Amino acid sequence: MLREFFLLAGQSILHRRLRSWLTVIGVFIGITAVVALMSIGYSLERTINEQVSGVFGLDNFVIVDENAFGPGAHGGDAGEYALDLELLRSIEGVQVAAALRERTGYVQGQADAEGNVLQGFFPVMGLSPELSTQFKSFTGELEVLPGGRLFEPGDIEVAVLDYDISQRLGVDVGDTILVAGDGTSELDLTIIGIMAPPEDNEQEDGGGFNMQFGSGSEGDTISVPYETMDLLWGPADDVLVTLVRTRPGYEVDDVADRAEDALKARGSEVSAVTYTDISDTISQMTGAISAFLAGIAGISLVVGGVGVMNTMFTSVLERTKEIGVMKAVGAKNSHVLTIFLIESGMMGLVGGIVGSGLGVALSVFGVSLINRLTTGFEMVTVINPWLIVQTLIGSFLLGAIAGLWPARRASRLPVVDALRYE
Amino acid sequence: MPVLRMKGVTKNYELGKTLVRALRGLDLEIEKGEVVAIMGPSGSGKSTLMHILGALDRPTAGQAVLDDLDLSEVKERQLVTIRGKKIGFVFQTFNLIHTLTAQRNVELPMIFQGLGKADRVRRAKELLKRVGLGERLKHRPNELSGGERQRVAIARSLANDPEIILADEPTGNLDTETGNAVLVLLKELSTRDGKTVILVTHDPEAAEIADRVIRLRDGCIDPRSEQPQTDRGDRNA
Prior knowledge:
- The complex is a heterodimer of chains A (422) and B (237).
- Chain A has 13 helices and 9 strands.
- With 422 residues, chain A is α+β, with helices and mostly antiparallel strands.
- Chain A has a 6-stranded mixed β-barrel.
- In chain A, helix 2 runs antiparallel to helix 12, helix 9 crosses helix 10 and helix 9 crosses helix 11.
- The relative contact order of chain A is 0.19.
- Chain B has 237 residues and is α/β, with parallel strands linked by helices.
- Chain B has a single domain, classed as P-loop containing nucleotide triphosphate hydrolases (Rossmann fold, 3-Layer(aba) Sandwich).
- The two termini of chain B are 32 Å apart.
- The interface between A and B is medium-sized, with 23 and 27 residues.
């Protein structure tokens, strides 16, 4: 019987073609906006996730100051933390751990031809050698000028200089500089490499998540091996970031939890951040943004629903006599109600089908427009089938709910009055 | 045995602030297979009587019994069932659904009774053939003449094989010739199929086919009217 009711409702919609289409237009404009915005939101989320996972890898995690990330993070206040790197390396499941710590130190270059010695306070950065060999996705390709090299395990009294500072200190590969740490500790460090000067188009490898070690914006950093920092400033309490790779077969989130617990037990105020954590945060953010935008677009859905309601009221009024006839030939109230609900639901559904199609098309167009207007940011297009399914069900319900009131009115018309209606 | 029995039927309704006493204690019996014409001037209560006979409305007081069922006591749901199964309506303005073809219009009462598609289509075709519209199955009402529309309506009234055909001014919108053809068809329903046919009409020609004419005046039956058609002819002569 339901099939017949669908046919009856469909015939009625087709009979009032123009009005039905106008009503459907009212519905699909709103649905187009919602679907397009949600789709662009999904695309954005997927794009950021892919970029982050490209940098992060699925088996790595990062240890940062606990204010930098995670529950209770208030951002902006991210700082340095104490770290027992050997303890971290001994945790089950940790394959490689590399850290970066930073101080400001007194540095003395070599005397020039006139006997002037350039000196001053400069940032000194301690780097685990593994940073440049094992974590290239984070650091990018670090390049030294020809004739130099980067750190290797076992290096102690050596330094790699940024290009600018090497010029200012007037030193080159093979020269020595003096770096003074806490108290009386000081070391003569042999320069083994000069970083290639940053090129004009520094950001061309895109991503925005790369940490630009060494070739920092100021270009005046002196990099030394991580262990050398111990000799100058003692045990690390000035670590900025630690990168950890887990052994194959270990769950990265489990290892990260273990590492965080172990370090916290030693008094380090740290947070271990995995790709899952970042991905969740990204989803929350993009989800909130697209929900907000879709909410605004949803207002037009309400307008569309009111349009359906208006059309259905007109239809009930127009067909009062028809309703009377249906009841006279044996239609129950529930039959009349069902027919009218199906009719308004179908108008919603057609609006949903057209709106989903247009919304997806609009989002594809929007993504390609974003890709054309921006460089270094290739957005992927995501078409979420669930979104479409939900939209279609939702649009049918929107129509049916908008039609509920008119349909109830139709079903309750007294048959005698309805038959008399002119 | 009467198929319809009315005893002291009263129907009042409010029109604005005035109480309209449409029927004032009507007694009436209609036998199975009878053709009865209900006549009377406007405002005499014809339509109200038809609504009660057709289970479209309930009396304010009194009994209206159809097949042992007192219409004044049954629930609205049962009235719907009675309308669907026991009564077929034919209206002055045909009242076909204009978005549906002739065949679908005839199918409609069967759809509401939940009849399967195959049976429904077969019966609709049969009925339309019987009223002479076997070639017009797929035509919509606006593609049919007035007489044809009324014949579709008659076919529709027969869809669920009801006992009673209730025709409200069936010839009111038709020319004499077409009207007569419709009347012949209605008469045939009684003589050939044994249906009870109740005609509510102004048309003396329509009354001609009736076995009995009931005249209404001010909500009461005119006592002189309850006589066989032939008697009335004699008296008028």
